[in-house]
Every structure is written in C-alpha cells, then in structure tokens.
Amino acid sequence: MDNVITAKKLIGGYPSNITWQDTDFSINRGEFVAVLGPNGAGKTTLFKLILGLIKPIGGSLTVFGENPKKGNPRIGYVPQRHPIDSEIRIKTIELVKLGLDGNKFGICLNEKNIEKEAMSALKTVGAENLADKPLGELSGGELQRIFLAEALISKPELLLLDEPLANLDMKRVSEFVKLIYRIAHFQNVTVLLIAHDVNPLISVLDKIIYTANNKIVTGKPSEILTSESLSKIYDLPIEVLKDSQGRIAIIGTEQPVHQHENE
Amino acid sequence: MNSAIFTLNIFNDLQSILQYDFMRHAFEAGTIIAIMAGIIGYFIVIRKSSFAAHALSHIGFTGAAGAVLIGMTPLIGLLSFTIIAGIIIAVLGKKASTRDTQIGIVLAFMLGLGALFISLYSGYASEVYSLLFGEILGISNSDVLITLIAGIVVIIATVIFYRPLLFYSLDEDVAEAKGVPVGMIGIIFMILVAIATSMAVQAVGVLLIFALMIIPSATAQRITKTPKNGILVSMTISLLSVWVGLFASFYIPYPVSFFITTETFSLYIIVLLIQHFKNKRLVTILQK
C-alpha cells in the first residue's frame, strides 16, 4: 500500500516543551484516521509538523515520501476555530477561490477558471447555494463546509481537519462525518481528523492516532480503544465501556498510587 | 476665504477654483491620497487593523513634529516614523489578535516624545494645528510629488500582493499553511498602511485619519460582496468626499477636513440606516 505519512522515532513539540517522543507510525493512502487525545497532548503539533510549519525536534517525518514543506499543494488544511468576523460581507465563493490561488502574486489571469473550480468545490460539499452569501452570515455548520471547500479546491490527496466537529450540533456532526467520508472514499483522499469524541466517527474509521502522556500510539480502533491499551498509554487504570450500538465511553479512575511510588 | 461666487455651472466653478495654485495642488494631492486611502483602508477594515492605522498616524505626528523641530519638511518625518513604527508593530506581534497591547505600548511612548518635540518647538502653532487636523490647502509642489511617488508605490504593491494579502487578511492560518510568507506580507502591509496614513495626514490630519482611511472602506465593505468591488467603491467614496470637500471649502470658509469627515460619516450612517430598514422589512415579510 501507498505510504502517505511515515514517522520514525519522531520527537514533536517545541525545544522548551517536548510534546511526545519516539513516535513511529505510518498512514496509508485513502485511510480515514482520527487523531484523539486530551487537550495539549500535541494533536495540532502533529498537524503543524505535517504541514511543515514547525520542524521535528528529532527523528524523521516524511509526507508523500519527502520532508514536509510549507505550501504543499497535495495537502488541504482546515485549522481549528477559525474565526470569520460577522461583519465580513464578502461572499463565500471569494474565500474558496483563495484556497486555489491565494498564494500567488500578481494579477490573476484565469479568474473564470478559478471561479469554476470554486463552484465545483462548493458543489462537492453541498454548499453551492451558499456561494453568494456573505461570509459573516454563515452558521457554524455552513462555515465548516465552506472551509472544507476551500481546502478541497486544490484537489488535495491528504486532508488535515483540526476539530471540524466542535461547535456542531449532533445532527450536523453526523452529516459532516458522512460528507467527509464520501469525499475521502470517492476521491481516494487520506483524512486525518482531530476530534474530541470518537463516537460519531467509529463507523468510518480505519485507524486511530492516540496521543497522550508524551506518547503517540496508532492502530485500528478495535486495538486502541480498549481498557488495556488506553491504560498503557495513560499509565493509569482506564476502563473502556461499550454500549449496545458500539458507542464507547472512556473512564479514568483516580490518581494511582504507584506513580508516586515510582518517583 | 475668497471673493469667488458659487454658480450652478460646475465647469465654470472648477475653472475658477483651479486657477489658484494651492487649489490645484490640493486637488492633485487629494486625488492620489483618496485612491491610496481607499485601497489600503479596505484591507485595514477586513483585517480589523483600524487601531494600527490610528497608532501609526499618532506616531507619525511625533515624526512630523520632530522634523519641524530640526527644520525639515514634516512629510519626511511622518513617513520615516510611520514606516519604522509599522515594521516594528508587524515584527512584534505575529498574530493579529495580540497586537493591540503592543501597539498601545509603542503609541504611549511615541506620543510622549511628540509632546516633548512640541514643547521644544518655538515656531508657529499653525504647524501643529495642520498636523492634527490636516491642511491640504497648504500643500507644496514638492509634497505633491512625494504624494505621487507614494501613490504609485502603493498601487504597484497592491497589484503584486493583492491575493496573498487578501488571503492573509481573511484566513491567516490557512494562508500560512498554503505557503504565503505571512511574516513578510505582514511587514509589507504595515509599510503600506504607514505610507497611506502619512499621506492622508496631509489631508485630514492625525486626529481625523479615520475619516479617510476607515469610514469610506467600512461603508464600502457593507455594500459590496467582492473585494475588488469593495476596493473600487471605497476608492470612489474617498475620492468624491475629498473633491466635494475641496470644492465646498472654496466657497464656505470651513476646514476641508471638516467637510471630508462630515461627508464620509453621513454616508456611513445613511448606508447603515438603509440596511437596517431593509433587513427589518425583510424580517417582517418573512414573518408574514
């Protein structure tokens, strides 16, 4: 299978604050991957490394067989909590267009073409009716779809979505997950999606990257989301409970005594 | 201010206005200033960097006061201080959201310095007044030339950096990931703001800088849906307000900056009211 991302002995974070170390994993083409873990455990750091916005402190990371570089057209990125001021009245399609040519200097010579690409990206996310709507008037769910269109317009092979499900109500969450899954499946796009709650994703996931306690582990959902493996990651007794529909709950118990004994 | 009488024949009126050198200079400089303010103001408004423009104009005041003190033309002092301050502001705060405090810190220090320069300067108070409230009717030939060069620089830079600047203004994080050199674009943007602000100070002064740099663009932002139209409308509003302001001040002896401010402000309020009532009507229609 085609390797999209490979990490070997990777150390991530900032020199003064190492987020995780000795990380080995690989992501293959077309995989739908959830990036899970508590706040501050380095989920966004991982994205920044893949995007080439920060450099690994140690080890190696390759994306499409090369060192990560800024502005890689094969990657589409939707950052977290990305504010659009409610007073901005520029129409939606203008933002989507920037996803294709916003990094180019000088006068735009193929405006018509870019407009067409933007419209088709909006269609892909089912938002063609929003093309002329002012950005500031979009709801949270509509904005997420527009950001996705902005990322998709350059026809990326890898999509990095940082908490796209936050601030969406339950119905929108499941619609959005289906939408991303459909895109990933039909266009053979690899998806890395940072999420707080794994449940809406369980039916579509191929892999999980779990980061906590200065570690990253990867594997199939059935391997990672077990009491045994999560207890090992956190170094705490953790229980994973499953309900009748396969949804899970992760429950940590009180601060263990043995950590103090080890010190 | 003069014995000319306003007739309803605009061409005759313009002819009698433009036979005066100072009016010609004012129209020339005012036109270039309005174009610059319209372009850069639009980006300031969508980036929500109004405070930066405000701060730069005040810092420019210190520069101009300093220049006057050592016997130089104030415009040079304005330009050099605002450009240096603009670069410092851009470098200090990487993310726009953290900039207010840093700008405020620099601003406080610079205004203090300005106060010192004014107290040391023993010349005419009118120099200080024209810095604060603008004196476009007193613009010299060489100032028109500097303004023209500044205008050309701003227009060329905008053409080159238009898309990255827009991307950076609307969606900084994605722009950075897409390879837009956001650090460099931030510095270039602040230099452009510095240039446009310095030029606009000639027309409306340090204290009324928003009249030209912000209000026309804020109005344009409300009534247009694409950045290109926004910039065009913003330019048109500032151009008309400067022209009408100059025209009016020829017949009515009030400061030009008063006219410009009143015009742009009134237009903003009118647009706001129209939009408000339109929305209200729309809501009542929808409720029915």
Description:
- The complex is a heterodimer of chains A (263) and B (288).
- The model of chain A is unreliable at 259-263 (pLDDT under 50).
- Chain A folds into two domains: 1-74 and 156-223, Rossmann fold (3-Layer(aba) Sandwich); 85-155, no CATH class.
- Chain A contains eight helices and eleven strands.
- With 263 residues, chain A is of the alpha/beta class.
- Chain A has helices spanning 43-51, 92-101, 111-124, 140-152, 170-186, 221-224, 227-234, 258-262, and strands at residues 3-14, 17-28, 32-36, 58-63, 75-78, 158-162, 190-194, 207-212, 215-219, 238-242, 248-252.
- In chain A, the strands form three sheets. Chain A has a six-stranded mixed β-sheet with strand order 5-6-7-3-8-9, sandwiched between helices. Chain A has a three-stranded antiparallel β-sheet with strand order 2-1-4, covered by helices on one side.
- Chain B is an all-alpha fold.
- Chain B has a domain at 20-211: ABC transporter involved in vitamin B12 uptake, BtuC.
- Chain B has 13 helices and no strands.
- In chain B, helix 2 packs parallel to helix 7 (141-170) and helix 11 (215-223) packs across helix 12.
- Chain B is globular.
- The chains are: A alpha/beta (263), B mainly alpha (288).
- Chain A binds chain B through residues 51, 53, 70-72, 75, 77-79, 82, 84-85, 87-91, 94-95, 98-99, 101-108, 132, 134-135, 147, 150-151, and chain B through 46, 48, 159-164, 166-167, 170-171, 173-180, 221-222, 224-227, 230.
